[in-house]
Amino acid sequence: MVGTTSSGPAGSPDTRREHLGHVVFITAAAAIGGFLFGYDSAVINGAVTGIQRHFEVGAVVTGFVVAIALLGSAVGAWIAGGLADRWGRTRTMQVAAVLFAVSSVGQALPFGIWDLAFWRVLAGAGIGMASVLGPAYIAEVAPPAYRGRLGSFQQLAIVLGIAVSQLVNYAIAQTVGGDVNNELLGIQAWQWMLGACLVPALLYLLFASVIPESPRFLVAAGRSPQARQVLAEVEAEGVDLDARVAEIEQSLRLEHRPRLRDLRGPAFGLLPIVWIGITLSVFQQFVGINVIFYYSSALWQSVGINQSDSLLISFSTSIINIVGTFIAIALVDRIGRRPLLMIGSLGMAVALAAAAWAFSAGVPRGETVTLPELQGTVALVAAHVFVLFFALSWGVVVWVLLGEMFPNRIRAAALSVAAAAQWVANWLITVSFPSLAEWSLAGAYVGYAVFAALSLVFVLVKVRETKGRRLEEMG
């Protein structure tokens, strides 16, 4: 059997563009799961104040309801690897999309605060599954030369989801006069914000139903002819498809379906590479990035900015997030993963320290805090600089690394554990922030700055470069 296909000169510019265009389409479709992640993460930002007023709850309960979705995400991430290896990547994506669609309707029409919490857990489970499936699928279909940039689609989709949700929140708030507790067609504005999540969920379901299955899953499932067909669609002209299938088979030859027991090792019960993935995930969250996207509206209101303007500022940080993500996409395959992480860690540490200094000058005025003009300007600039450095480094690179750093035999299981750790870390930061902010907003930001500095040390000591290496070389 001939292992290549040919419709023109092998490797010609036209055929390379055709193949790359197809790969870009299917990776972008898979990354819609990241869009859901970003949309759901940030949509609650606009709804927090409305939920708190509607249900008359305090900071602790508010933090719990906001953060409870992240526990569902941890569970979803935990089980996604096993489901993906059993059912396939695309079928599991469809399940995640259905969970998110159903929960979107539930969140829009809650009977009470605990009912809302249940639907947020269900939404979180779908998002957690998508957070694992996107990077794994993209890494498995992307050619090595483009894998970093294509892997960046996951984070690009996340930041686009954040920006779109902030824009939708602002538009809904403006429609009802700037107060998210005002009603529109019989329900309050914050309910419309949460219900709008249904639209991207249905798009994810649609695209997950049309993209091809991962060739590595197909080989592992004994469906090599189908894997060869998919490889013909995504690999460049002139590649020996039989050799590529044989290479994947060789890397999987000794593999049984990955289980958590396969991750056991001498380093506190896990393989060292798994601990590196877990630590990367934890640092990505412990710098406090999601405080900006979950609570920035309430944060800016607390320092004297009105509700409508606070939503607009939140949207501006989302635009900065997108700009930083495009910078990362342009650089990740050129300068590598480690240099971007180190640049980001240093930039975030400085920006967070500046924000901590600015918030330390807050003057209490009733239930709010007012910042002097200089410190207020510094706080706004520092928040945007922090988001920029996060987006051009840890926001993109962690997802790229998690999709490619693990050996084939444990990739799905290890990625599930690392992503679950990320969601737990996200939950810890999210649930603790309202209470920390009441205690000391500046103190909270000092803590995030310390973690940013520690992340630089960790990259220097523990993270290996993966730029340009085949997945079959990882070990």
From TrEMBL:
<feature type="transmembrane region" description="Helical">
    <location>
        <begin position="414"/>
        <end position="433"/>
    </location>
</feature>
<keyword id="KW-0472">Membrane</keyword>
<dbReference type="InterPro" id="IPR050814">
    <property type="entry name" value="Myo-inositol_Transporter"/>
</dbReference>
<feature type="domain" description="Major facilitator superfamily (MFS) profile">
    <location>
        <begin position="26"/>
        <end position="467"/>
    </location>
</feature>
<dbReference type="GO" id="GO:0022857">
    <property type="term" value="F:transmembrane transporter activity"/>
</dbReference>
<feature type="transmembrane region" description="Helical">
    <location>
        <begin position="192"/>
        <end position="211"/>
    </location>
</feature>
<feature type="transmembrane region" description="Helical">
    <location>
        <begin position="117"/>
        <end position="138"/>
    </location>
</feature>
<protein>
    <submittedName>
        <fullName>Sugar transporter</fullName>
    </submittedName>
</protein>
<feature type="transmembrane region" description="Helical">
    <location>
        <begin position="267"/>
        <end position="293"/>
    </location>
</feature>
<feature type="transmembrane region" description="Helical">
    <location>
        <begin position="339"/>
        <end position="359"/>
    </location>
</feature>
<keyword id="KW-0813">Transport</keyword>
<keyword id="KW-1133">Transmembrane helix</keyword>
<feature type="transmembrane region" description="Helical">
    <location>
        <begin position="20"/>
        <end position="39"/>
    </location>
</feature>
<dbReference type="InterPro" id="IPR020846">
    <property type="entry name" value="MFS_dom"/>
</dbReference>
<dbReference type="InterPro" id="IPR005828">
    <property type="entry name" value="MFS_sugar_transport-like"/>
</dbReference>
<comment type="similarity">
    <text>Belongs to the major facilitator superfamily. Sugar transporter (TC 2.A.1.1) family.</text>
</comment>
<feature type="transmembrane region" description="Helical">
    <location>
        <begin position="150"/>
        <end position="172"/>
    </location>
</feature>
<feature type="transmembrane region" description="Helical">
    <location>
        <begin position="92"/>
        <end position="111"/>
    </location>
</feature>
<dbReference type="InterPro" id="IPR005829">
    <property type="entry name" value="Sugar_transporter_CS"/>
</dbReference>
<dbReference type="InterPro" id="IPR036259">
    <property type="entry name" value="MFS_trans_sf"/>
</dbReference>
<feature type="transmembrane region" description="Helical">
    <location>
        <begin position="59"/>
        <end position="80"/>
    </location>
</feature>
<keyword id="KW-0762">Sugar transport</keyword>
<dbReference type="GO" id="GO:0005886">
    <property type="term" value="C:plasma membrane"/>
</dbReference>
<keyword id="KW-0812">Transmembrane</keyword>
<feature type="transmembrane region" description="Helical">
    <location>
        <begin position="379"/>
        <end position="402"/>
    </location>
</feature>
<feature type="transmembrane region" description="Helical">
    <location>
        <begin position="313"/>
        <end position="332"/>
    </location>
</feature>
<dbReference type="InterPro" id="IPR003663">
    <property type="entry name" value="Sugar/inositol_transpt"/>
</dbReference>
<dbReference type="Pfam" id="PF00083">
    <property type="entry name" value="Sugar_tr"/>
</dbReference>
<feature type="transmembrane region" description="Helical">
    <location>
        <begin position="439"/>
        <end position="461"/>
    </location>
</feature>
<keyword id="KW-1003">Cell membrane</keyword>
